[in-house]
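Anyone able to model this chain together with MV4?
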Amino acid sequence: MFRRILIANRGEIALRITRACKELGIETVAVYSEADRDLLHLRYADETVCIGPAPSSESYLNVPALIAAAEIADVEAIHPGYGFLSENSHFVEVCQSCNIRFIGPPADVIAALGDKVRAKEIARAAGVPDVPGSDGPVKDEAEALAVARQIGYPVLIKAAAGGGGRGMRVAHNDVSLVNGFHAARAEAESAFKDSTVYIEKYIDRPRHVEIQILADQHGNVVHLGERDCSMQRRHQKLVEESPCPVLSDEQRTAMGEAAVRLAKAAGYQSAGTVEFLLDRDGKFYFIEVNARIQVEHPVTEEVTGVDLIREMIRVAAGERLSVTQDDIKVTGHAIEFRINAEDPDAAFKPSPGLIETLIAPAGPGVRWDSHAYQGYRVPPHYDSMVAKLIIHRATRREALATARRALEEMCIEGIATTRSLFLRVLEHSDFINGEIDTGFIDRFFGQQR
Ligand code: MV4
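re: yes, here you go
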């Protein structure tokens, strides 16, 4: 096992990784930017290193600074958390060349899955259903028109280097297709320096259902059930739950087995997520792989009892997964609410600043993953998430009752948060009945005014 790990992240996930390391008896090296001297996990770290000024590009994305910190602090491995350098194959290669273990998938696997066209090819070869569409990249306007007419409108033009909803264009006819094709290519070129696009049939108001996987270096791959992440706003997830309220046991097994086949075909290692769209007829389609630990991983930890961060560290050190597929049972219902420093009544405008009061909810069925404390100042430079409230109860109905109770208990003063939105969402009959899709939040705000 590793003796010492550097945590190349901030906020709640840096704290979460620190906790896992402590329990494994591993020393931690915390890195931080000049805006982050007050981060909670710095207090628990064995060593702390300032890696640069507030902007991420000069600190948490600063590869030379991170490698220098890792060398000086003499770590054996780096955990990237999510975001920042977590899916940067170049960074993984640099770590490898410096003899530092990257706690995540191999560089070539991240690169292959990061290219959504290649990921779809791997999926198809593994017998995983994907959304009908172009067979690979679409080169020009004429090919785009031919593909769109063949699969039928509406279609979605996506950037091969995109993912997470960036650089997508819907087209309902030939005219919007031609415009969308050129717009998507230009956007992809400027955002990713890669103008490659592909086309898929547009699935109307799907649910977003993703499978958590774990893979070790010995060819063992397991899935840990699904998370329904349909409640999103502008591709930012707000609520995630497991199990998905509308998935049958047969669909769950089929989706889980598909995810494992894909992971094996890709040579996957570490924790990862295989994303699917679930259409209104209950059919599922692979869309992309997230080659990292995700924000919403605690939902799966609660229903399976598996510590995903611990497994990630263990398998990176060459150990075998501590669970087999037969060991994994989904128990009860878990749901996570992202408490962001944003004002839901002002178009989710960020609300950084001083937390004057913080009362964290607790009690049966409540988990609070947060780096926030009374007197902490939320800096304006980064993601606005300040806490994750995770509820685990025997049934969805009970989980929602506990969620209401916990959200009422919690108190954050000094900044606006998404708490008020969740208290209202918990009264909405569609949400109570599990009838949500990716359009829920927009409709919810449409109805409110
Ligand atoms: C789609 C889709 C409909 N049809 N693909 C957005 C995020 C990215 N991971 C994939 N996304 C979508 N892909 C086809 N062929 C609709 C979305 C989508 C979406 C997906 C999941 C959660 C929220 C979403 C919000 C808008 C669009």
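Residues 207-448 form a domain with the D-amino Acid Aminotransferase; Chain A, domain 1 fold (CATH 3.30.470.20).
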